[in-house]
Specification:
The chain has 259 residues and is of the alpha+beta class. Among the domains are: 83 residues, no CATH class; 87 residues. The protein contains six helices and eleven strands. The strands form three sheets. Strands 1, 2, 3, 6 and 7 form a five-stranded antiparallel β-sheet that branches. The longest helix has 58 residues. The radius of gyration is 41 Å and the shape is rod-shaped.
Amino acid sequence: MFCEKCGNKLPSDAEFCNKCGTKVEVGSSKKNLKTAMDDVSEDKTPIEYGGNAVIKCGNCGYIGQGEKARTIIGQILAWLCIFIAWPITLIYFLATHKYRCPKCKSTFLGVKDEKGVFVGQKGGHNGLFIVIIVIIAIAVIAVLAAIVLVNVTQYINKGKDAAIKANLSTIMTNGAVYYNLNNNYTDFCTSDGVESPKNTISSAGGTFVGHCDASHFCACSNLVTDVGNTYCVDDTGYGKETATNCSVRCFWNQYACSD
């Protein structure tokens, strides 16, 4: 027997059509085979003729030449948007069906393929939904990436500040050792006790300033996290972070840190 709605061939004991889901009415098994086959869309219409494809409307059941659903102006505008806002172009072609039913204007239809089978029995809204989900996902990922990047950058900068402070403290310690050996600080600023920590400070993003005379020395550098803040050490054991510039804190003829 055959389904009265779509003409699909059914088993003799079927209660529902396995193709369209229509309930099989009593007496449908007596339906003439020729009539059933006429109801099925075994038309000999070419896959595409007159510039349009053959469609089967899922709304009104129309089978025949489809009507183009995308306007020429709409397509031109969509393609122009690819240069300034490509998502609009993508959304347009995914959200709009290429053909529609000329009878009821529905886009819930299948298009006849090369095998004569109607495929794609759906409208264009699923594509639009997917595009919107993808765009939202990209936006969320971008926001999360920005948050992570900011946090990572802060941790990196804090690490650089810690390295700058640690190397300035090393200079202060090296100064005490140097004075015990030489009984002065005259050449301390050009010694290895300053040069090695100074290079590390520069690698961390600091700008080193140091001054020495026979009796005193001071060393200072800017910090990375808080722009404008500096850290200064001297031979008295002073070591402190303030918002004063190094050129003021460690002056060339002062040789001692100031706040």
